[in-house]
Design goal:
Blueprint lengths: L2 E3 L6 E3 L19 H33 L4 H35 L6
Antiparallel strand pairs: 1-2
Helix pairs in contact: 1-2
Length: about 110
């Protein structure tokens, strides 16, 4: 454990300190651990996958609706599309809440 000089107040501070004990100047920033990085990237990838899934689902609904023959068929597809979109959004929100808490709890903390 070496001593470094604080750039603000010029006092001697441990090189493992995040802030100077004299003036509270930020000396270094805390880094995320392995699990923190894993959860953060999992959160980002999950959101990208959900966007792709939702857009793909809507494109498929558009293709099905354009090929329908009767009004009853179009009505059924509209109702089913609304229910399907709602379920995808609920899944998305639940996944974001769970992964968001994991990202929040694994964020870097200053010692």
């Amino acid at each position: 454990m070496a001593l470094i000089t604080c750039p603000e107040c010029s006092s001697q501070v441990s090189d493992t300190a995040f802030k100077c004990p004299q003036c509270a100047a930020q000396l270094r920033t805390p880094k995320r651990g392995f699990w923190g990085k894993l959860f953060k990237w999992g959160f980002i990838v999950f959101n990208v996958i959900m966007v792709v899934w939702l857009v793909g689902y809507w494109m498929e609904l558009g293709e099905m609706t354009s090929g329908s023959v009767s009004d009853a068929e179009r009505t059924g597809q509209a109702i089913g599309g609304t229910i399907g979109t709602g379920l995808l959004l609920v899944l998305w929100v639940m996944g974001d809440i769970i992964l968001g808490f994991l990202v929040l709890f694994t964020r870097p903390k200053a010692a």
